[in-house]
Structures are given as structure tokens and as C-alpha cells.
Input
Amino acid sequence: MYLCFAMVMHIGDIKALAHRAHGDVEERERLFRSMLSSEGKEASNAAWALTHLPDSDNKYIDEHREELVRLAVSTPEVPLRRLSMVLLERLGWGIDDVRTDLLDFCLEHMLRPDEPYGVKALCMKLAYQQCRHYPELKEELRQCLLLMEPSELGAGVKHTRGKILKLLC
Output
């Protein structure tokens, strides 16, 4: 069954794509190429399907870490940014995995009032995963989080902020 990624897709379609991609390397690659080379709905649908791959496929996602970081920090399309960040969040972030472009992006965008709550929360999580190994970066993240006014945050972002502040102490 071939589905056009550019059409409106429903969760059942997305899960079917992810299931097929889990068992088929070429299908995974097709989804990934579509996410990177397409625009709008097509790219977002491909990314959405990739977020539904089982955790056992995280090794595959990790092989494309560089492309995902570039996509997350450069795309003007909010849904695609959020979905690429969801994929990045699934990965392990070791002491040598700090990406200054992604970290700078996250520290800036978690404070932006025009950024959607989902992206802000993902920025906080990705920033923490990268900063947790370095005391000076942990302190910088803590200061950024303290700049956020809790009364102006949605419940999910407020919860994420509080959880990360506890981890930083």
C-alpha cells in the first residue's frame, strides 16, 4: 500500500507507515528522505511516521542525528521542527554529544514568547540532556529557566521547567 505523504493523514495511516518502516530499511530511508527533502505536509507526515517507530529503531534514528539537528534548527515549519526534536529527544546524549548549534537554539527558543509550548518543552529537555555533563552549562541552563515567568507558561511547560530545575540542583 502506497500513501501519498502530501495528503492529510490520520493516525491509523501514520501507524501503518511506521509499522511498515520498522520491518523495511528501504521504507525507513524513504520516510527519512521525504522528511528532509520535502516541504509542508509531506515532510511533516514522514517525520510523524518516524516518531512512531519502536524504540528498537533508535539506532537507525541515531545514525541520522546530524541531519535531524540541522533540520530542527533551520526549518521555519513549526510542526516539522517539533517532530524532528521529538526524534532527537529519543536519543542518548553522552558527554561527547553536545551540539553547540542545537544547544544555542534550545536556550534561545525556550525563552521565545512566540514559540509553541511543545517546542519550548522539547528545547528544555534537549538542553538538559546536553548540559547535564558540564557544571558550567548546567548553571547556564538553570539561569535561563529561572528567567521564565511561571505564570506565563502553559501547564506542560511549567511542569517540564520545574522537573529540570530539580534535576539541576
